[in-house]
Amino acid sequence: MELQAKPVQPQTPAALQPKDYKSDLKPIWCPGCGDFGVLQALYRALSAIGRQPHEIAFISGIGCSSRIPGYTTAYGFNSVHGRALPIAQGVKLASPELLVVVAGGDGDGFSIGGGHVAHAIRRNIDLTYLVMDNQVYGLTKGQLSPTAPKGLHTVTSPFGSLEEPINPLLYVLAYGAGFVAQATPADMPGMAALVEEALRYPGFAFVNIQSPCVTFGEEEQQLRAHKAKMKPLASLGHDSSNQLAALDLARAYGKELYTGVFYRNPAPPPTYDALVRLRQAELAKTRQPRERVLDAYLQK
Amino acid sequence: MDVTPTQGIDFTRLTLRDGLDLAISIEEEARDRYQDFAEQLTLHHTVDAANFFARMARVEEIHRSRLAERRQALFPGEISSAIRAKVFDVEAPEFDQVRVFMSVEQALKTALAAEEKAYDFFARAIPQLQNAEVRALFTELRDEEVEHQALVKQEMARTSGEPSANAEAYGDDPVAQ
Predict the structure, then answer these.
(1) Is A11 on the interface with B (CB under 8 A)?
(2) What pLDDT shows up at residue B51?
(3) Closest to B89 (Cα-Cα) out of B28, B152, B140
(4) Which of A61, A256, B43, B63 to pair with A272, CA 20 to 30 A apart?
(5) Which tens digit of pLDDT belongs to each residue from A171-214?
(6) Can you say whether the dihedral through the CA atoms of B26, B56, A18, A192 is positive or negative?
């Protein structure tokens, strides 16, 4: 049996158009929200990959960006705050043929659901995790989020935040994620290409998307500022197979806006879902009668 | 940083059919973006600007259908070579150009910036084109953008001074809860 999860194979490129992934539900995000750009990039990436909507599942937690499943024609589950990853892992293991995409915000992913990220990474389940990082809890009117910069004035930090922000890039790289990238809607072609690459990666893939909050975000976090300061990693000559170099660059999160692939494991290890299938096949050869199943767990 | 709005399109190899397909995709994207803006702003009670963007969506649809008719006459039944996934904001305004309670004046500025951007796109593409027919098509489309800009400017002059929604008036600074 093949251990390696297969990269998604492109089908006829013109077969599915971005609009084929767009549902009838109208997004209720604030006009101008960065998440509109993410959604557009996602439709295009899915269209480029060519998988049918019924072959895709979007899982999210709670937050503005977690509304994404409803805006696609794919299967979707807008679940519980911070619990998108555990649910997505279950979906992938139960239905390995599905392309499973997890979407959510920085608060959902790195505060309320922070404990789940490390485990999803170490299991290397074949998921694509898109975090729309806006440095604020927008849905609940602009409270301090885990990636909010130190000193940020919000309703819960009226005198400026005293906390250092979490560095999502360093976090996922340190736990060994096989694909780590950062994008901004200020570069739509770049973002669509990165999302597509993440979807094709065989294993846990993470894309941190700097998605500005137009209502509660700071001026220097808006797209105009992104356009001025973003630095594509490719233009710096970064070798995305070099994990140590990726870690070094990731340290600049919050200071520099690097876009592109920080790290892509050049030899992706077997995914957990592939290992599970292998184990199932192995055990099927020596299947025990049902009354002996518990014997496997008893010391002899 | 300058971002290319079309991904992986080799302008030197465009045929007339490809050029028409690309132009149709560009108009489609602009139509859809304006329609999205109209829907977003309607949902957020910014009616005047929403109506303007809905009108722009209808205008872009007229442009699209004219090009589509032309393409149908020249290449009946042939499958489109354009991939919408490769076209980004050529004539469509960037999606972050709308705000709750934006005024019609701001909406007009957004549309004008989009028309100027489209002009720049065609102007930059023309020197790369090898096919004379495509060059003629793109020159025509570029010149149309000048006409569109003039129409928007006319509308700006006509509506100047009219009362309209203003985001400043609805300012709602965060307060500690």
Answers:
(1) no
(2) 95
(3) B28
(4) A61
(5) 999 999 999 999 999 999 999 999 999 999 999 999 999 999 99
(6) positive
CB contact under 8 A, B1 and A19: no
Residue from B54, B110, B99 nearest A32 by CA: B99
CA–CA separation, A67 and A59 (whole Å): 10
How is residue B9 written in tokens? 């399109």
The minimum CA-CA distance between B40 and chain A, rounded to whole Å, is 6
Residues of chain B with a CB closer than 8 angstroms to some CB in chain A: 1, 3-7, 32, 36-37, 39-41, 43-44, 46, 79-80, 83-85, 88-89, 94-100, 102, 174-177
Encoded tokens for A166:
């979490």
Q: Quick one: DSSP state of residue A70? A: G
Question: In the prediction, which pLDDT does A10 show?
Answer: 46
Residue-wise pLDDT for A145-173, tens only, equals: 999 999 999 999 999 999 999 999 999 99
- C-alpha angle with apex A89: A268 to A267, nearest 5 degrees? 0
CA A250/CA A246 separation, integer angstroms: 6
DSSP state, residue A129: E
**pTM for the whole structure:** 0.89
CATH code: domain B16-168 is 1.20.1260.10
Residue A140 lies in a domain: yes
Of A78, A30, A189, nearest in space to B101 by CA: A30
Q: Where are the domains of chain B?
A: 16-168
Instruction: Give the total number of structural domains in chain A.
Output: 1
Ranges of residues in chain A with a pLDDT under 50 are 1-14
Q: Quote the pLDDT of residue A11.
A: 46
Of chain B, the percentage scoring pLDDT greater than 70 comes to 85
On whether residue A102 sits in a domain, the answer given is yes
List of chain B residues whose C-beta atoms are within 8 Å of the C-beta of residue A187? 1, 3
The domain that contains A105 carries what CATH number? 3.40.50.970
Number of helices (H), then strands (E), belonging to chain A: the values are: 9, 10
